Amino acid sequence: MSVLLNALFLALLVILAVAAVRVRDLVGAVLALSAYGLVLALTWAGMGAVDVAFTEAVVGAGASTVFFLATLLRTVRTEQVRLPRARAASLAAVLLLGGLLFLATHEFPSWGDPASPASVHVSPRYLRLGYEETGAPNIVTAVLADYRGYDTLIETVVIFTAALACWVLLWRPKA
Amino acid sequence: MIREHDSVIVRTVVRALVPFIQLFALYVVFHGHGSPGGGFQGGVILAASYILIALALGRAELDRLVQEGAVLVLGALGVLIFALTGALGPVLGAPLLDYEVLSLPGVHGPEARALGILIIEIGVAIGVAGALTLIFCRLAKAGEGEGAP
Amino acid sequence: MTELLAYAAARYNYWVYILLMLIGFYAMVAHGNLLKKVIGMNIFQTAIILFFLSTSAKRGGTLPIVGPEALAGGVAPAQLMNPLPHALMLTAIVVMVATLGVALAVLVKIYRRYRSFEEDVILDRL
Asked: CATH assignment of C2-58+78-125, given 2.40.50.140, 3.40.50.880, 1.10.287.3510, 3.30.2130.10?
């Protein structure tokens, strides 16, 4: 059942991503991207990454769409109809990259393998001792705020810096 | 300028809904230890509530409720709460971001760490909410004073 | 044949992630509209986050939230999702939306000056 749902979500993701790229009306493209974000959140919830799904549902389907629409409010709405330049070269680059990545998947552990290398290092220790050491039953919170607190601190600084950059970029002294 | 929404239903529902959204954001922040949630999620929900105000009730209403400068200061304050809590460690002779230095009478070991996590989650929530609200304010204001193309 | 199917069943997720990434990449290189490029970049980023999160999935696993049994050492790590990619990607998503704000601010600036989002028009007016 969950395998079927996952496959359905993945198919929807591909359709919505293609729609977001192909639609010429930019508002339509942004809304397709918003739907893409929502389906992405569902995919992650199905994968057991509820914390991430939670954030993506607000950010991907909500905040980023509003940011796009706020930008489009005072700018152009449509993409001009013209054939992309160097289309053949772009396609070749995309296909080459895709082929290389496709070949690389041969080396990957099978999807959802509990013994995959990513799952046998550090993380079992977090799961076993996380609650005992940090008092937080949600191990994601324990990892985020305690074991990997350094990372989170700098990410917070990055977010604030981005807001600052946005503020400065659109600064207009009152005439 | 984003104007007030035409429909009275939308305006009323948003007015009624915003306090609940903000309450939910606080719940998500403070309940991050035991259930999905935490500073980042709570922060984005809080920012979304302000964006919703601007979308449904107009920019003027958002400007009345929050000042851009205050939002910037709040964003900085969030990062500062996080950084200072982390810096308490080195000051008291422990590693950076070691929350066990927050031990109070009756609160030590894992409990002190849980307290530290809560404090920095609050910092993250304030920082993220401030940053996203600020970005929205700036983007929404960007075209003001120019004629539509 | 069944071997091939089993091989595909274990990897089709990765292939879809690659496909999504390529769709985003194509939008970034082939489209002349700057906003389309930003949309493409968004899809590209989410595809990579999707891939990272997929490394946390475990068949038959459940959410990485433990109960009081953890204090007695009763946690079986193989049955809980790997929490590390979750924590890392959680911050990555919020950083993604903040940097998206910066990208859009730059776009607004470009539009103010050149009155267009089309790459070749902007190049003409430079």
From this structure: 1.10.287.3510
